[in-house]
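User: I'll paste a sequence; please echo it back and then give the predicted structure.

Assistant: Echoing your sequence first, then the prediction.
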Amino acid sequence: QVQLVESGGGLVQAGGSLRLSCIASRRTGSSYAMGWFRQAPGKEREFVAASSWNGASTNYADSVKGRFTISRDNSLNTAYLQMNSLKPEDTAVYYCAADRPVVSATAKYWGQGTQVIVSS
């Protein structure tokens, strides 16, 4: 069992930055991929970014490429999402997910979410 806790959400103006963190309750570095998803009001949950277990491979949704960066520190059982040049359309609840060997919308483990609001 892996428990995930996100933090770092908040209110920011367009063009600003936030860094989300996701702390896992147990060691995830050995084989768990980790990822970030988001859900805006009235919309389906969508993929944002994902990292392989060792961080060597990452991928991003087209909508965030060049603005968001996923990273992880397996010594701290923590994944991060650095979000720059934020836009109002990035407003959503952001969820961390973990699974092995890859993470997807049907991931086995999910956090409770952290709210990000980007004002125009």
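The chain has a mean pLDDT of 95. Residues 3 and 25 are 5 Å apart (CA to CA).
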